[in-house]
Each structure stands twice: as C-alpha cells, then as structure tokens.
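R.M. (postdoc): so does anyone remember the format we settled on? I'll just put the structure tokens first.
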C-alpha cells in the first residue's frame, strides 16, 4: 500500500483559528435564523389579528440579530476558507 492520502483520510488539523471561524459562522446562522423567525412570528400574529396588546416590533429583536448574524456568517466563512486553502 502506498502512503498517499485518499479522499477519506484528512490531513487537516483542528486549529484555534479554524475552530474560531467555524464557531463564528455557526453562531451567525443561529442569530440570522432567530431574527428571521422573530420577524415571521410578529408578522403572522399581526396579520391574524391575535396580537392585540403584543409587544411591538422592535429593531433590537429583528434587525440587530439579522445584521450581526449575516456579518458573523460572512466573516466566519471567509476566515474558514482562508485556513483551508
């Protein structure tokens, strides 16, 4: 047998940089999803007329998680790609 790595064997190691960039990307997905889901539920409640006296839409709960999430996802993905090339 030869010592040539196959497609199934990985020579990449887990480094702190790769771990941090992957964590940032995953956290970005979670935050962006939270912001999108919050916007969806508020819109659905208002449209159904069941939101009488509900907490009003606030940018802190919708826009901030979306923007921070997309930024983290972009930066984390870019940094992770730079560590694998």
């Amino acid at each position: 047998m030869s010592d040539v790595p196959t497609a199934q064997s990985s020579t990449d190691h887990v480094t702190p940089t790769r771990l941090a960039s992957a964590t940032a990307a995953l956290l970005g997905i979670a935050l962006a999803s939270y912001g999108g889901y919050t916007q969806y539920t508020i819109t659905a409640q208002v449209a159904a007329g069941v939101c009488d006296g509900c907490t009003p839409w606030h940018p802190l709960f919708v826009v901030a998680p979306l923007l921070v999430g997309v930024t983290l996802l972009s930066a984390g993905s870019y940094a992770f790609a730079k560590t694998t090339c």
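R.M.: ...and that's the designed sequence above, right after the tokens. Also worth knowing: Residues 4 and 11 are 11 Å apart (CA to CA). The chain has a mean pLDDT of 83.
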